[in-house]
Design goal:
Blueprint (H helix, E strand, L loop, with lengths): L2 E6 L6 H12 L2 E4 L18 H4 L4 E2 L12 H14 L3 E4 L3 H8 L5 H5 L11 H11 L1 H6 L5 H14 L3 H7 L7 E8 L2 H17 L2 H10 L18 H4 L5 H26 L3 E4 L3 H16 L2
Parallel strand pairs: 1-4, 1-5, 2-3, 2-4, 5-6
Helix pairs in contact: 1-14, 3-4, 6-8, 10-13
Length: 299
């Protein structure tokens, strides 16, 4: 199997910098596994790597879609796998756990795409839809955000039309890796990570996050678009509806980002064989690089 390096970890843990460092060491190219950085114009809120931060390393699956377009784990699988085959030394960088596993393991989405949605549920509110899914398929409801109506509707349709829930069908798949994987997790002491998250969000506002959201809205992007469901964007909805202050939006983004980081740790530890490295220690960064190079050299 082809060797693939994966740089994973919670938000604000230093994944982008680590991926660039490793790609430089192995003369590789980076494939973004982020679900929001694919969108043009969504730079600040997504923490998108800048051209300067790329250090000349080719980055793929960034700025390839308009914010009004949809993007899913199945789409990432379909786009990333050909890139993995084309790139001599691929390095996947991302924190969207399901996207990573869908690409790197033998997930099959073909049957799901063929199942039509149930039109009778389209008129339900997102809250009622998610409550219905929680009754039908509680495991899927835990994984899918209530605002992601399309995924909620899809999970309901799978259960209603096949007689078997999405989570049950996923368990029946082997989910064995389809590549020879080295999965490195970027981590640090939890309180330090939360401090970095809070400071990062402060920096986003100083860099013009509010103006970025205003620009998106002026171009016809709405808070119902899939792209705007990401943390850093969805929290602005009450602000633009006149129900929250900028400071409340900032605090909500910080809180949701910290909660998301906690869920990312839990998911990665249960779903993938991650080797963790403390990104606040230079010795740990060097250890990551050394162990990856040793792994790469093994046949």
């Amino acid at each position: 199997m082809k060797k693939v390096i994966v740089i994973a970890g919670p938000t604000a843990s230093g994944k982008s910098a680590a991926a660039v460092r490793i790609a430089e060491a192995i003369h590789g190219e980076i494939i973004s596994g982020d679900s929001i950085q694919v969108y043009r114009g969504m730079n600040i809120g997504s923490g998108k790597v800048t051209p300067d931060e790329m250090h000349g390393i080719p980055h793929h699956l960034i700025d390839i879609l308009e914010p009004t377009e949809s993007y899913s784990a199945a789409d990432f699988q379909a786009m990333a796998r050909p890139l993995i085959e084309e790139i001599e030394h691929p390095v996947i960088c991302g924190g969207t756990g399901l996207y990573l596993k869908a690409c790197l393991y033998d997930y099959s989405f073909r049957a799901e795409k063929d199942i039509p949605l149930n039109p009778e549920y389209e008129a339900l509110s997102s809250e009622k839809l998610h409550a219905l899914l929680a009754q039908i398929d509680p495991e899927s409801a835990e994984k899918i955000h209530p605002n992601n109506r399309r995924r909620v509707l899809r999970a309901i349709a799978i259960a209603k039309r096949t007689g078997k829930t999405k989570s049950e069908q996923e368990k029946e798949q082997a989910h064995a890796p389809v590549y020879d994987l080295f999965i490195a997790g970027c981590t640090m002491e939890r309180s330090r990570l939360y401090e970095r998250i809070n400071n990062r969000v402060e920096g986003m506002f100083q860099a013009g996050l509010e103006a970025e959201v205003r620009t998106l809205l002026s171009k016809g992007v709405t808070f119902d678009c899939p792209s705007m469901r990401g943390i850093g964007y969805q929290e602005f909805r009450p602000y633009f509806e006149g129900c929250a202050s900028v400071e409340e939006v900032k605090e909500a983004i910080q809180k949701h980002s910290r909660n998301y980081a906690k869920r990312q740790y839990t998911w990665l530890n249960h779903q993938m064989p991650v080797r963790w490295y403390d990104m606040t220690q230079e010795s740990e960064k060097k250890r990551m690089e050394r162990e990856m190079l040793e792994w790469k050299e093994k046949m």
